[in-house]
Each structure stands twice: as C-alpha cells, then as structure tokens.
Specification:
heterodimer, A: 425 residues, mainly beta, Rossmann fold, Neuraminidase, 2 domains, eight-stranded mixed sheet, six-stranded mixed sheet, 45% strand, B: 249 residues, alpha+beta, Fusion Protein Consisting Of Minor Coat Protein, Glycine Rich Linker, Tola, And A His Tag, Chain: A, Domain 2, three-stranded antiparallel sheet, 6 helices, 37% helix
Chain lengths: 425, 249
C-alpha cells in the first residue's frame, strides 16, 4: 500500500512535467501538382485542325506556370478515348500513373469559331472540380487554350493567371535589332519596328510599346501603338534609355545621359513635364523600375564605386542603397507583389545570374546557378513568374521560371538572339 | 472475579492511528521527494522554452558575407566503389619494327605521326579539362560542421538536426496552395521514436485547416521514417514523450 503510494507520489510530478521538444520546420519544397492533361477530344473535322495548337498551348501553360507537373502522356494507362464526364473515367488508372488532377477538354467548331469545354477532376476524390466553356475564332486556338488555362489557374490560386498577358523583347535581325510584342509564351509575335537598332522595349499599360531607337541617329525614346509608325516620345541629352511606365500608365521613368553622367527622370506618359530625380555628377543612374503602388522607384547607380540597386521615392526623395552583396548588380525589376526586386548580378566566379532582394530586409536570394549566363529578369503581372534571357541553349533565348527560381523553362520559340524582355497585361 | 466486558462496550478505534500514520507517511514521502529533488536537482525545466531550430551544419568554410549567396548544394555522396570496366581489346597489329632498305624513300606517314601527336595533345587537353571539371567544389558550411550536414547555417542538438534534415527532405507541399493561404499555414505533429529509430506513432495534434498541407506534413514524417537510432540520453524521452514538429511553409 505504502509502496504504491510512494510510487504514485514520485511519478505524478514526472508526468506533469513531461515535455516534448519542439522542432520547427519551414522551407517546404513546394512541389508542382502532378496533372494529367488528356489529348483534347473532338468529333468535328473543322476543330480537328486546331487540336494540335490548342493542346500545345494548354500543356505549355500548365507546365510553365510552376503550379503543375504535367505528366508524360507516354505513361498514361487510361484509355485515351474515355469520356469527359466523371462517370465515364476510370480514376484508378489515373491514380496509377501518379496523377492528382486530370484535365479533359472537348473541342467543337461551327466552321468559324472554336468551342472548348474543359473539365478538371480531382483524381483521388474521383469528382469533377471545375467545368469551363469558352469560344474564340477558329484561328485563335492558342488564345482559347490560354483562356481556359487561366480559369484552372484561378480555380487553384484565386488570382488571375498570366496566360493572357503579353511580352515584348528585341531580336537580332539582319538589319539590326527589332522590337516584338507577343503572347506570354512568345507565340503570335508581332514585329513593331523594321530596321535600325531598337532596344529596351517597355510595354505601355493599356496598349502600345515604347523603346529606345537609333532611327533618328541619337538613341531616343519612341513609342508605337497598334501597328502604327513609331513616334518620338522623349528626345533629350545624348541618350534616353530604360523606359518604365508607372503601374497606372500615367508616368514614364527614363535614364537620360548628359555628358559624363546619366540621371533618372520622370515625365508624363506622353513625354511632357519631364523632371529630374537624381543628381549625382560623374555617376550613372539607370534602369528605373516602379513599385506596384507607383510611390517608389528602384534603379541602378554606381555612386558607391560599382553598380548597385538603390530605391527612392517617386519624387526622388529618400535615395538609399538596397544591395550590399556583390559588386555588379544591374537590371532591377520590382515585383508587382511589392516585396521583391529581381536583378542581374555578376558573382565572384564572373557568372551572370539572377537574384532577388527583399525590399524590407535586403535579403538576397539566388535564383539561377551553374546554367550558363542568365540576365534581364522581369516579373509577370501577377508576380509569380519571372521572364529572363539565358544563353543556356547556345544562343540567347527567353526563359521563364517561378519567382523563387524553380521550374526554369525555355519559351517555345525558334532560336534567335533575344534581349531585354518586358511583361505586362 | 471480575465481570467479563460486554461485547457492546466502546473500544478504542485503530482508525486515528491509521490516519495519523498515513498522514505522517505522506508528509515524509513528500518531504523526501522534495529533499531528494533538491539534492539531485537536474537542469531546471523551462516551461516557456522556445522551439528548437535544429539543422545539421555542413562541414566547410564559412561564406564571405560580402559575396552574393549561392544555392545550397547537396553534400557529395560517399565515394562509390570503382568497378572494373571491361575494355575492348585493340585489334591485333603488326608490332615488328620494319628495317628500311637502302633505297627506301622517306616515309610520308611521318606527317601523319605529327597529326597523331596533335591527337595525343588534344586527348591530354581533354583529360585536363575533364580533370578540372571533375574537381569537387568546396562546400560552404562551418569549420566544426558535420560531413553529412545539409545546411550551411544554424545549429542545435545534433540528433534533432538529423531529424529535421530527413523530415525536411520529404517536406513536399503542393504548389497549388495559394500565396495568401500559405502565410497562415501552421501544423503541429507529434511522433514517438523507438530505440532503434523506428516510428512508433505519429499524430496531427494541431491541424492547419488545409487538407493538402496537413496530409503533406504527415506524409513528410512517414516518408522520413525509419530514423537513425537516437543517442542514449534521448532514447527514453523520445520513446515515452516523443518530439513535436511545427511545420510552417
């Protein structure tokens, strides 16, 4: 009796004080969701011609956005001809190939337009999660695919996807370098300029593109709208470069060279009312980029002896250095989410790679490494992706990756020498 | 002759003695426990302790803070046993040295030999290049780190660092969880580990509210098991009380 009592008295405190150590784990490996994208089904001869284009665009959107891992169709066990309704799908066979989601589409055409019905299924639950129907002119099969991909993207993230946005870039041509505007995947590229050297395109919110052109001998800023002839926007000093339009499209920031130095200026979007923001004699201030609220600008300056990223108010006040690591940091792009600035840097191995710096705590994160030269990052309008140039494929091509450096992919474009991309709605 | 006592007569009850002795026993036991606890006092238990941030520090050289960061590289795997590679035998050739005759003309194949020399040189160059490419890169870490470490920073109890490391390796979460939701996700998992490192049980004690995330954190622990055997001083504690993992994205 007594011994039991004593044992109880001794054990109770140890139970009361029993404590588990707590280990904190963060830094999850955000893994793309394995998705099976079945070959689009169609009964119409008219729609059959559009299947390949539609399918290629839809598959690329899913693969490049970073949310999904598109499964190789060679591994599919399910009958390619199975239906598009939950009752006709053998979900266990999709589970066997590792799919967590399944996308099925059916195309039909009335001769002039193409109609697509997309259904998204949760494979584990064996149920339909989303059904979307859209139509577009028959020639716009890719755009129709982008629209449906956006619907799936929104279903998961509750935000607008990047698939119906546009990009601008320059491409080396026999007569110099020309500006192009294309869909986000580089397809449907429209040549904006024709001859001379045209560089640093900046998409204008609401339409049009501005760029630095040597067409008037001196490199000044021009803009082109809707396929029209380029018109002069800012012609000042000896060189106008690095145009960046404010998110509301009302102002444009540029770098203007005058003599030995280059300064940041801000003007109205039509080039009027130009105001100088930086004033550092004998130093270069270039590559302005707007914060998403339009109240601040990040830019490059060599006032500390080598090029570094700086930030300042949109009126030029409060200029301060943002990057302190590395000695050659250039081409900043401010994330539309506001938290990060992506930039190109030359590291201690003399490799050009991409990094982000957190605007609040100045923490620098590497995005690319050991994959040839990577330069000129620009964020997608929703801030989840980064478009950049890379020489990893031999020539300088356009690539895309998630904002944290994952899922790096080349755009499906023919080879060429592409530079200075921009990305906007 | 005295009258025998009545059976109904009041007799002294043993209960007060029993209660008294019992109370005394209790008091003595508590006093002894307090005394022993005071004499053999272990480290004070801090009920407000902060969570352990454990990771296994990699052996290496600390990185200069002025340099741009590099992505964490995997520690090199242990050297694989070199297997003998079967080499095809060269075709049999006439190795006998030919003696030139008196009127023999200069051999035009001498030029070819120069060519062969070039080929040899390029072969050596190729070896040199291969040699340079194959040179292992110096890993960054701490001078007192561990060869198996997978992080260049942070330190805690070594075994917890190992647990952290293996669980983190399997901490795969679906990218489809949207950004806004990621910020508020937090789940706590409790697990108990046997003396040999086997997973006894695992429970989600504080779910995050997101099914994908909750199943991912449970999956991370299950996939990481079995763990390496705990050190002697942690064995009983890990078997009895276990350890908690607090997962945040």
């Amino acid at each position: 009796m007594f011994s039991r009592l004593a044992a109880l008295l001794v054990l109770v405190p140890s139970f009361v004080l029993a404590q588990r150590p707590v280990i904190e784990i963060s830094g999850a490996n955000f893994r793309p969701m394995p998705v099976a994208v079945a070959v689009p089904l169609t009964q119409d001869e008219g729609a059959r011609a559009a299947v390949a284009e539609f399918d290629a665009a839809l598959s690329f959107d899913f693969a490049a956005c970073g949310l999904f891992q598109v499964l190789d169709r060679k591994g599919f066990l399910a009958d390619a001809k199975e239906g598009v309704t939950a009752s006709s799908i053998q979900f266990n066979r999709w589970t066997d190939v590792g799919a967590e989601s399944l996308v099925k589409t059916q195309l039909s055409s009335d001769g002039a337009s193409l109609r697509a019905d997309l259904r998204l299924f949760s494979v584990a639950a064996g149920r339909e999660e989303l059904k979307v129907s859209e139509a577009a002119p028959l020639k716009d099969a890719r755009r129709l695919a982008h629209k449906l991909a956006n619907a799936v993207y929104k279903h998961y993230t509750r935000e607008t996807g990047p698939f119906e946005t546009r990009i601008a870039f320059t491409r080396k041509t026999p007569s110099g370098r020309d500006v192009y505007v294309a869909d986000w995947d580089g397809k449907n590229a429209q040549r904006i300029t024709n001859g001379d050297v045209n560089v640093l395109p900046a998409l204008i919110p609401g339409g049009g593109v501005a760029f630095t052109s040597y067409r008037s001998r001196k490199p000044f800023l021009f803009s082109a709208q809707g396929g029209g002839e380029p018109v002069s926007l800012i012609a000042k000093g000896s060189m106008v470069t690095g145009a960046a339009f404010s998110p509301d499209g009302k102002r444009v920031a540029v770098s203007i060279s005058e003599g030995e130095n280059a300064e940041i200026f801000v003007a109205n979007a039509d080039g009027s009312n130009i105001t100088k923001l930086t004033d550092t004699k004998f130093f270069l201030n270039t590559s302005p980029t707007w914060s998403p609220d339009g109240k601040r600008l990040a830019f490059v300056s060599n006032r500390a002896g080598n090029p570094q990223i700086y930030v300042m108010g949109a009126d030029g006040a409060g200029q301060k250095r943002l990057t302190f690591q590395g000695n050659y940091n250039t081409t900043p792009s401010w994330s539309p989410r506001g938290d990060l600035v992506a930039f190109t840097a030359r590291d201690e191995r003399n490799a050009f790679d991409l990094f982000t710096v957190n605007v609040d705590n100045a923490k620098v994160t590497r995005l690319t490494q050991d994959a040839a030269g990577n330069e000129e990052p620009v964020f997608s309008p929703n801030g989840r992706l980064i478009l950049f140039t890379s020489s990893r494929g031999g020539s300088r091509g356009l690539h895309v990756m998630t904002f944290d450096g994952n899922n790096q992919m080349a755009l499906p474009m023919e080879k060429g020498d592409f530079t200075t991309p921009d990305w906007a709605n | 002759m005295s009258t025998p006592a009545s059976l109904l007569q009041d007799r002294p009850s043993p209960l007060p003695i029993f209660v008294g002795l019992s109370t005394l026993g209790h008091v003595l036991a508590v006093a002894a426990w307090l005394l022993l606890g005071w004499v053999f006092a272990g480290p004070k238990v801090d009920l407000e302790q902060t969570p352990i941030k454990a990771s296994l520090v990699r052996l290496g050289k600390p990185r200069d803070q002025k340099l741009l960061p590099r992505k964490e590289e995997e520690a090199p795997p242990p050297a694989a046993k070199v297997e003998e590679v079967a080499v095809a035998k060269p075709p049999a050739t006439d190795t006998a040295v030919k003696i030139p005759s008196k009127d023999a003309k200069p051999d035009k194949s001498a030029e070819k030999k120069d060519g062969a020399k070039d080929a040899k040189k390029s072969l050596f160059d190729a070896f040199n290049k291969t040699g340079k490419a194959g040179k292992p890169q110096e890993l960054e870490g701490a001078a007192d780190g561990d060869p198996n470490g997978d992080s260049a920073k942070q330190e805690g109890e070594r075994y917890y660092g190992l647990l952290n490391s293996v669980v983190k390796r399997n901490y795969d979460v679906s990218s489809t969880i949207d950004e806004a939701e990621r910020r508020r996700l937090r789940a706590e998992v409790a697990l108990r580990i046997g003396h040999g490192g086997e997973l006894i049980d695992v429970n989600l004690i504080k779910p995050s509210g997101n099914e994908l995330f909750d199943s991912a954190v449970l999956g991370a622990v299950k996939k990481a098991a079995p763990f390496s055997a705990p050190p002697e001083h942690l064995r009983d504690s890990l078997k009895k009380n276990g350890v908690s993992f607090v997962f945040t994205p």
